[in-house]
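Subject: sequence -> structure tokens, single chain

Hey, anyone have a minute? Need the predicted structure for the following. Not urgent.
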Amino acid sequence: MKRIVTKQQKTTIGKVLRYIKKYWMYLGISVFLAAVTVALTLYIPILTGRAVDLIVAKGLVDFVGILTILKRMAVVILLTAAAQWVMNACNNKITYNVVRDIRKEAFDRIEHLPLSYIDSHSYGEVVSRVIADVDQFADGLLMGFTQFFTGVVTIFGTLIFMLTINVKITVAVVLITPLSLFVASFIAKKTFSMFKLQSETRGEQTGFIEEIIGNQKVVQAFSHEKEALEKFDEINGRLQKYSLRAIFFSSITNPATRFINSLVYAVVGIVGAFLAIAGGITVGQLSSLLSYANQYTKPFNEISGVVTELQNALACAARVFELMEEQPEEPDASDAAVLSLAEGKVELSHVNFSYTPEQKLIEDFNLSVKPGQRVAIVGPTGCGKTTLINLLMRFYDVNSGTISVDGIPIRKMTRESLRNNYGMVLQETWLCCGTIRDNITMGQPDATEEEIIAAAKASHAHSFIKRLPEGYDTVIAEDGGNLSQGQKQLLCITRVMLCLPPMLILDEATSSIDTRTEIRIQKAFAKMMQGRTSFIVAHRLSTIQEADIILVMKDGSIVEQGNHETLLAQDGFYATLYNSQFAK
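Reply:
Had a minute. Here:
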């Protein structure tokens, strides 16, 4: 287990260093200033020792010499403070540039992940990796840069200064040093796995909280508060357990290293006192050595603290890199065709698809749609209607068979050009934080005011938009804020009406709209669909009676196909569905 953890840590550190490499100039300045800061800091005890040696006895004090030393000390302290300020500025620059790069790359990877990954992972857990885990990583990295370099240079610098004063005491100090290193190494191995579990559980908790808050109406409607609280308590309890273990191991670092530091100080004091009595060193030199003993051991405390923080940082970084290394969706072929303005001829030939190999869904699916035809897709829940839409839009790729538009297989054309030729209105509305205008013009940012208003009037959204406080400039929150579900759906319909692409997909597009408005929208849709290939998924069969082709799906296959009158005359599955809705 230890080997695995160590290997994982090394791999993560290597990935972090690749991001830091871009900012080598700031890193070089930081290391140089760390050395300067340490050298100036370690020069202070030398000056202090010299000042002490100028105080020989009562009446034998060289005040002029002491004043000269004090002036020199003031200059050294000012230079040290300036060097530390610049060094910290460089460290902040490195840390937050690296964090920005990682977040940008992580978000970019999310944008290019296949929908299968997004569908199979909690949104909150993914958000936690990009936000919380990166923040934790930033804290550890910043502390590492701020204290690690300075600490290491301080240790070696102190030893050099101590050697210039007395070799024997320096050797005694070095012999005790491995104890501190052993303690830090032991604790580091223990804390990494605990911090990793803590980070994973925090992500699970974030996902659960987002799920409950986003569906609070459902939770309260079904009186599910008690069960939700119990599950939250269970996750929270696990987070508490892992956090306590991680904090326990990290908290014993400081007392353990402080004990060793006190041991070093005692050795220097005792050995130095005997040497001073014997005349081997002066009292001023002993004062310098005791000061160096403190400065020598202090970095071990700081570095042990840094190591603990780095364990947390590396555990969080490992989760972020795990997300960033997820396999992206298959890229477009280098010679992929660009579909400019489709005629609307769509063909599906022997299409097979399933989300999981164990559960078959669509098998040997065949369909031929002529340009401008309206195709309605009906059937019971779970029969594959929405899945068919996902395949047409290439949100998922078929397992076998071919889907083509205008005779070109969609796997041989760019996804962007394919999707630009579809206008899509889903049952689930999606609006971003911004103005009403921003949401309508999402697919056509350069639309004029007249075009926007015309599209809104066509979708019957103009009247309610004008009643909003700022009209089209009204800012709405994420997911539509206080707008009703019907109003949000009208905005989504307006968005498509503004673009008017050559092919349309309407997946229960009027499910949240009142009957009176639905009749108007249906008329607007009928006008919009003229000359455009349209796919209409509907549960209310009254909305698709004018369709050119009605596909009746069951268990992933087309069981019946034809227009409304033909299918009713067949008295088959469609007739059963239709009569179940309109039977007296």
